[in-house]
Amino acid sequence: METLRLTTNESDIARAGEMIRNGGLVAFPTETVYGLGADALNAGAVRAVYKAKGRPSDNPMIVHIAYVAALGELIKGGMEALDADAHRLIGELWPGPLTLIFPKSDIVPDVTTGGLDTVAVRMPSNGTARAFIKESGRPVAAPSANLSGKPSPTTAEDVLEDMDGRIDAVIMGEMCDVGIESTVLDMTGEVPVILRPGILSREYISDILGREVVYDQSLLEVPEVIADPDDGAADTLFRPRSPGMKYKHYAPAADVILIEGSYDRFRLRSRELGLEAMKEGRKAAIIDYGDDPNRAAHKFFADLRELDRQGYDLILVRSMEQKGKGFSVMNRMLKSAGYDIE
Ligand code: TXA
Ligand code: MG
Prior knowledge:
- There is one protein chain.
- Helix content is 31%, strand content 16%.
- The protein is α/β, with parallel strands linked by helices.
- A hairpin with a 6-residue loop joins strand 9 and strand 10.
- The longest helix is centred in the last third of the chain and has 17 residues, at 263-279.
- It is globular.
- It starts with a strand and ends in a 6-residue tail after the last helix.
């Protein structure tokens, strides 16, 4: 299949929307990472997304909408079923990098939700994303537009690296602002639970709601075994509530090691490890974002992919304090390192 390169101009966006209505797959920019979109209500189109990504089919998709009112038909009981907390979060944080989980309505196919009876919904703030969803006239199911297991794409070039020839089109937009995926918040229980941390931190959301917001237990543990999506087999020891969180993730071709501690320790250890690697004829690179979680989020996935392209064998990453946005960045860093931290 030839993958069309579309611009962000009106006629190209209209064309992209038409492709979605016809059951096609179109990658598009959002403020977090690039998504791989399909009509969320078309089971065949959604199955094609799993196939293009090489993604295990128990891993549910996020459904993207362009208007708050579009949420109604997707959730059980419609808009009237939303409680005060949901209203507040939607009012304050949509459009934006926040995905909310609710019981699903019957029109959402099982394949979209990986067989779960809940649906994840997000209204992105990126202008191109919004225009594209509006033009499609459908709720758009979209996982990140990478091959399963690889770092999420934050530029159109990164999307093409994984998806050229596998999907109908890519909207060639700008680099994503945020750089890590949305915060996924489960609203179906007594207490809101963060299933995937994002740039909207637990502390920030908790302040908005004026109540406790907790992390899913799986985010606080080191998994004993990480399933490789290529094996298709999910491990039995580590069962987070967000099915996607159990797989090996965000892994570049290079080995990644995370180095903890002070700046001096990082400098010393990265030099030692870099020299060791060099003696073995391996090329080592260093990633250090200081204590700036916004910059780390914005650049981390892009840097991993760039260092792969440049042929590095080892990437030494300076760790960050696991607080606020730093917790979310460290979640991605730990996974990309396969929890190799020293
Ligand atoms: O920022 C983002 O969220 C990007 C852009 C494209 O919007 N999308 C994204 O989608 O990251 P994806 O498919 O790569 O990640 C979706 C995450 C997975 O961890 C999945 O398991 C979880 O959300 N998820 C989706 N529906 C769920 C549900 N009903 N219950 C629990 N977790 C769910
Ligand atoms: Mg993803």
